[in-house]
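ENTRY TYPE: protein
WANTED: fold as tokens:
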Amino acid sequence: MNRECFFRAKHIHAMDSNEHLNGTWVHGYLSDKNYIYDKSLEGEFLVDENTICQYTGLTDKSGKKIWEGDIIKYHFGEVYAPVKFGEYQSCFDSAPTIHVGFYVDWDENRDIRKDLGYWIKLVDAEVVGNIFDNPELLEEEGN
């Protein structure tokens, strides 16, 4: 199986010709620690390395690509949580089992599954923003 690894990040103004892109998202291949080659913009762009997010390979119910750092909305109770990558433990594991991958980082006070695939494929959760442009969604939730 071939899977391309795409990234996105916020562009940092470095050249006068790119000033109009400052702070906008660029998408493509991570070509260096803090550069992304964006094919649609035909160039390599300096990015804020704190905003680099990997594409999960999944889309939400409306076909929108899901990236690390996106905020997922659970419609039953209007609950929001960010998508992260790393180790996590599912609330359904009877023994302490560590999983690795993309997951939804629900508030620890909620006993909700964390595996991203479950929310996208079975529950039709949707992306409503991201942690960089919409942090207020998580502040309301207490995350």
